[in-house]
Amino acid sequence: MRIRVITTGGTIDKVYFDAKSTYQVGEPLAGEVLREAGVAFEYEVEPVMRKDSLEITPEDRARIREAVERCPEDRVVVTHGTDTMAETGRALAGIPGKTVVLTGAIQPGRFRSTDAPFNLGFAVAAVQILPPGVYLAMNGRVFDPFRVRKNLRTNRFEPVEPRPGSG
Length: 167
Hints:
alpha/beta; two-stranded antiparallel sheet
């Protein structure tokens, strides 16, 4: 099995220059995490953009979708900022024959205390066992992008019931 990892930026790849105020979205961390873990599968890391998810536009989401559609792998992990991850997940719905799992981090991957390696590893496991479709893998859980929200108070993702007429 070969997995494509598409990177878009977000907190997982942020590099801070002072106490969490001045930052850049740095080089993708995913390849480094997978190399250090000594994974036993083939993978390709494809950077598509380096943006905070609050800056991702509908055109950016179309670029992410195109990258997923054109890649030869049928298993795709997308690293993404957490604030608009579900919105991008919804934009990726309906791609036939692909299992797509979005993940990210609440704490930057380069911080000593971070959820980034766990979330990436969890997403890699999920993408290998889930049927085709689009999912979010955060906080040790798998979510439907149409039935999830980020709880800003607890800094965790949680399931929600869809509103009537929303899917």
